[in-house]
Amino acid sequence: MKTLSRIGLGALLAAVSMSAAMAQSSPRPSDPSAPKTRAEVKADLAEWRAAGYDPLDWINYPHNAQRAARIVAQRHAQQTDGTVTQ
C-alpha cells in the first residue's frame, strides 16, 4: 500500500505543478497593474515608434511623446470599438 500511495501522491503533485505552470504561462490577466513582460514592453515601444515617438529627440520630448500617446490610444480604441476617431 505504501508504494501505491506514493505513486498517487506523486501523480497528484505532478498534476498540481502542471496546473500551476499552465496558469503562469497563460496570457496576461486584465489587471493593468500586473507587470509587463519584456516582449510586451518591446511591442509597446515599437508601437510608439510607429506612431512617431523618437526616444532620442530630447528637444521635443514632452510634445512628441504626448502626440504618440494620442495616436496609440486612438489605434487601440479603433481596434476595440471598430470605430475611427479623428
Automatic annotation (TrEMBL):
Organism listed in the record: Burkholderia sp. (strain CCGE1003)
Listed Pfam families: DUF4148
InterPro entries: DUF4148
Signal peptide feature range: 1-23
Region (Disordered): 21-41
Protein name: DUF4148 domain-containing protein
Keywords: Signal
